[in-house]
Amino acid sequence: MPKTKSDELGILPISKLLIKQSIPASIGVLVMSLNVLVDSIFVGNWIGPLAIAAISVVLPVTFFVAALGMAIGVGGASIVSRALGAGEREKAKRTFGNQITLTVLVTVIMMFLGLSFKDDLILAFGGKGEIFDYAKPFYTVVFYGVPFLALTMMGNIVIRSEGKPKYAMIAMIIPSVINLTMDYLFIYVFNWDMEGAAWATTVSYIISFGYLIYIFRSNRSELQISFSHFKLKLPIIKEIGSLGSVTLARQAMISLVVLILNNILFDLGGEAMVAVYAIIGRMLMFALFPIYGIAQGFLPIAGYNYGAKKYTRVKESIFTAIIYASFLGTIVYAGLFLFPVEIATLFLSSNENLSTNEIAINEYVLEHISVAMRWVFAATPVIAIPLMGGAYFQAIGKAIPAMLLTISRQGFFFIPLVFILPYFYGESGVWTSFAIADVLATIVTLWYLRREIKRTLY
Q1: C-alpha torsion sign, points 23, 24, 30, 34
Q2: Which residues are CB-contacts of 126 (< 8 A; sequence separation ≥ 6)?
Q3: d(CA 233, CA 228)
Q4: Of the chain's two ends, which shows fewer C-beta atoms within 10 Å, N or C?
């Protein structure tokens, strides 16, 4: 049988392969993160600080629904990678067809539910006071585009599982470029405010979805599926569900954390403190892009080689990914530690028409951002271990340990800490909870990962 592009995952040197897979993934995450970052800067400067807080409230809700597509994508991609590694190409195609059907069914239902209960959800996630009026129009429009966002996330992960990271990178770049262009037109030129920001986001993902259709329908993909592949098969659904539940649990935890955190912060300091976390939340995605890129590059390598029973390569990929990601995490933290105020200033408007309340919020953010950002990112040099640990178990099809390790940081450690520490230490207790949870999750993952490697890869 002639070699295909996916065969490289089991042939090329691990270090070279990880770089080849991770650089496009990192660029894709970077551009997508820049999109969120610059989008927030535009919104903050052209609409105001309450608009940033409103986006911070809405995104966890919409991203949770979109994460259903991501979960189906990751769960199916694990099957696809291992099937390609084992030479089972028909199974890979049927899995992809089932992923598409599941994503459409689940996200359309969730879209209708989300729109039916939008007021309750916005308030529950901290959209209180003046934030609510900014959040509602943004939420409404973005939710119409959630199925396209979910399909884009799913398809992006699958194309990477084939060993084609460049196409996945382009699929992430397209919505970023379109969104920022539309932001300028809809917010700055047409003066559509929050609805303009929302339409820019929705249109960008519809166009990216169109690009992925083109890739999968062309000879660029090995997954040339027919209508018969769309028919749901229970064994495939179960495996996608068990593995995808890891990603869904992680996003559910993120959404739950934001719900809890925004309400705690609002009680401690009102809209101003929610705005502080809104800026940090934007930086959480942007600053960690190289680490997330390595994790995404690592997934198909580990899955393919595990399926091909090349366990020495699997071990090497784990260690190499952790070393690379830890080095980059140290560099990231140095930058955030040195320039927190300068970073925050980018998000804040100096418009003369700001209300007294908005001016006060800007001053509060600049006064409190340094301590908050330094504590939130304090464990960045070591978070590669829990990230790669969870990714490894997901890649090899072990859903339960992947689930437990993935939710350990937020579910087992952060949520209890953020309820307890602010009671004694106020605002400082909130921010230190992040660092403590990261360190505890790292210790647990390191122990569990070492044990698993000794048991199965030697």
Answers
A1: positive
A2: 57, 258, 259, 261, 262, 263, 265, 266, 274
A3: 11
A4: N
Torsion sign, CA atoms 297, 298, 300, 304: positive
Buried b vs exposed e over 98-123: b needs ≥16 C-beta within 10 Å?
bbbebbbebbeebbeebeeebeebbe
Residues 181/148, Cβ–Cβ less than 8 Å:
no
As a whole number, the mean pLDDT across the chain is: 84
Residue 3 covered by a domain: no
- C-alpha to C-alpha distance for 154 and 167, rounded to whole angstroms: 13
Q: Pull the structure tokens for residue 275.
A: 């705005």
Q: For residue 347, how many C-alpha atoms fall within 13 Å in the half-sphere facing its CB? A: 31
User: Greatest CA separation found in the chain?
Assistant: 71
User: What is the per-residue pLDDT for 288?
Assistant: 82
Identify whether 268 is part of a domain: yes
- Six-digit token pair at 46? 């052209």
Q: Which residues neighbour 184 within 8 Å (Cβ) at sequence distance 6 or greater?
A: 42
Answer whether residue 219 is part of any domain: yes
Number of domains in the chain: 1
Domain that holds residue 120: 11-456
DSSP string, 181-237: HHHIIIIIIS--HHHHHHHHHHHHHHHHHHHHHHHHHSTT-S----GGGGS--HHHH
Give me the pLDDT at residue 373, please. Answer: 93
C-alpha distance from residue 366 to each of 302, 342, 346 (Å): 43, 9, 11
* Residue whose pair of structure tokens reads 């052209």 in the numeric block: 46
- CA distance from start to end of the chain: 30
List alpha helices for 288-345, DSSP H.
289-307, 311-338, 340-345
Looking at the predicted structure, is the pLDDT value of residue 5 above 60?
Answer: no
Are 394 and 402 spatial neighbours (Cβ–Cβ below 8 Å)? yes
Q: Are 168 and 24 in contact (CB under 8 A)?
A: yes
Q: Is the pTM of this model over 0.90?
A: no
Q: Quick one: angle between helices 415-425 and 234-287, nearest 10?
A: 30
Name the nearest CA neighbour of 399 among 168, 19, 78, 128.
78
The model's confidence at residue 300, banded by pLDDT at 50, 70 and 90, is confident
Q: Could you tell me if 80 and 161 are in contact, meaning their C-beta atoms sit under 8 angstroms apart?
A: yes
- What pLDDT, on the 0 to 100 scale, is given for residue 1? 38
